[in-house]
């Protein structure tokens, strides 16, 4: 195989990988067996005040770190969802110093967003910046409007 063919093959492979990444980025996955989450085990706070409020229809839990560049934007988007949609609670968990929590939930990137149903069961998970259209669809399935 000559070098030109190899370069073209690598270019095509890189293009396919890039397109696949863009299509799959921000997509979450539904969990087959929901896991019950005890919010009291999570260090959550809003504006410096501890909060453990479970939403009527759904609860969004965002795992962040101090050095996450995308986390503030996701925080704003999820806060807006909480404000606009009825029956949703939004909580943020800073795992910068809490590797035990990251290990328990298998967090390999921040932000990671978990969607809990009304029974505090983890039903949907997004690694990275969530696709808001897909997240809205999942919340609607849980009864949020």
What is the H level of CATH, i.e. the homologous superfamily?
A: Glutaredoxin
- Structure classification: alpha+beta
What is the domain tally?
Answer: 1
- Examine the secondary-structure arrangement and name the CATH architecture: 3-Layer(aba) Sandwich
Shape: elongated
Average pLDDT level: 81
Based on DSSP secondary structure assignment, what is the total number of beta strands? 7
Query: End-to-end distance, in Å?
Result: 58 Å
Percent range for helical residues? 25-40%
Q: Which strand order do you get reading across the main beta sheet?
A: 1-7-6-4-5
| CATH class assignment | Alpha Beta
Q: What does the main sheet amount to?
A: 5 strands, mixed
The CATH topology name reads Glutaredoxin
Task: Describe what you observe in this structure.
The chain is an alpha+beta fold. It is elongated, with a radius of gyration of 18 Å. It has a single domain (27-141), classed as Glutaredoxin, CATH 3.40.30. It has a five-stranded mixed β-sheet with strand order 1-7-6-4-5, with helices on one face. A two-stranded antiparallel ribbon has the order 2-3. It has four helices and seven strands; from the N terminus they run H-E-E-E-E-H-E-H-E-E-H.
